[in-house]
Amino acid sequence: MSKLAVNGGSPVRTEPFPNWPQWTDAERKNVLEVLESGNWFRFYGDRVAEFEKRFGEYHDGKYALAVSSGTAALEVCMAALGVGPGDEVIVPCYTFVATATAVIHAGATPVYADVSLDDFNIDLDSVAQLITPRTKGMIVVHFGGCPCDMDKVIAFAKERGLWVVEDAAHAHGGKWAGRGMGSFGDAAGFSFQNSKNITAGEGGLFMTNDEALMNRAFSFHSYGQRTGYPWYSHHIVSRNLRMTEWQGAILLAQLDRLEEQTKLRLENARKLDAAISAIAGLATVGSSDPRASERAYHLYQFRYAPGIPGVSRQRFLEALIAEGVPCSAGYPVPLYKQPFMEEVAPPEGQGAYNQLHLPNAEAACREAIWLSQSLLLGAEKDTQDIIDAITKVVENASELQSAAS
Ligand SMILES: *Cc1c(COP(=O)(O)O)cnc(C)c1O
């Protein structure tokens, strides 16, 4: 008789995991206050401004500018840094599409670096090989919430005269060596899209410690206006990327929960790491550097590597899902294989983007297993169920081998 749920056995778990997004009366009260104040626009109310102040302080950033999305935040970074045609910007190829499209929208050329299989973050050895006289800077992504080694990244960039942007869309509330993510580079972008660790459905935030960058960012996000000038005075060609007071109100309530939720995710992730690192065929992902010990988790990731003989990752995932643990394979291809990249002219001297082969990123696409951050917000029993489900699938893998043959 089959034991595995995927073969008709009874699953480890039938109850759902914690839902996302989460809210309380605090969100309800904050939104109603905005409604009844009639100040729905950020320059008439003070919710967005208050959120910027508190989010910036929490992440050790001097200036914070709320925007309409994480994508917008990265576009604001490029505009503030003056990125334009002829510039090359190095980005990791295992990331969300916005990391690269921000560069493309600025008129510049994205140059894809490989990632490290230890943490799925950008690999500086790969970056070093890609630098040309046209390279202006690099965007690093704290993938899944795992901090890049920011001591190394900043030293590397300084030595070569490059700027650094942190794509911190996965890293809210995380710290590197006790300092907030997003505060290390020249500028940073955060996202508050629905899946992110605090959310208003959509939203983003630009952060910097540089006043000149902040001023350019502000102008770019609000029709080219400048503080101190008449409102109908537009200094650069730009956009409207502002956040609404509704989003500010909700994010203020979400921010109050961030510290506690970040700690809980970390605690549960450590238990998963301990269990998974003891299972043959599976590998944990993430830095063991003590400077990363207060990291955020947007994703809990592990690698199906080398895996179980005769059982594909897909089969393993199906079995785990059937046991009641929602999980996915993550990105199916690195960004250079995306159809939209065919529209983009490759860097000088490089063939078409889709001819690239960056081995670690391709391995990550073949091997990764992702659990979303909300699965880490459960009680002890919830995390134990995840461990039990993984253990059960591994121990009964022979059922999958025969089913696969
Ligand atoms: C979500 C995400 C973004 C974009 O944020 P949106 O708010 O969805 O526009 C950028 N970079 C990374 C790594 C992301 O995961």
Entry keywords:
alpha/beta, binds pyridoxal-5'-phosphate, 405 residues, Aspartate Aminotransferase, domain 1, 12 strands, Aspartate Aminotransferase, domain 2, 2 domains
* Overall mean pLDDT: 97
Bound molecules: pyridoxal-5'-phosphate
CATH class of the largest domain: Alpha Beta
Gyration radius, to the nearest Å?
22 Å
- Provide the low-confidence segments as ranges: none
CATH architecture of the largest domain: 3-Layer(aba) Sandwich
* Mass-distribution shape: globular
Main sheet: strand order: 1-9-8-5-4-2-3
Number of strands: 12
Number of helices: 12
CATH homologous superfamily of the largest domain?
A: Type I PLP-dependent aspartate aminotransferase-like (Major domain)
Quick structural gist:
By secondary structure, the chain is an alpha/beta fold. The chain has twelve helices and twelve strands.
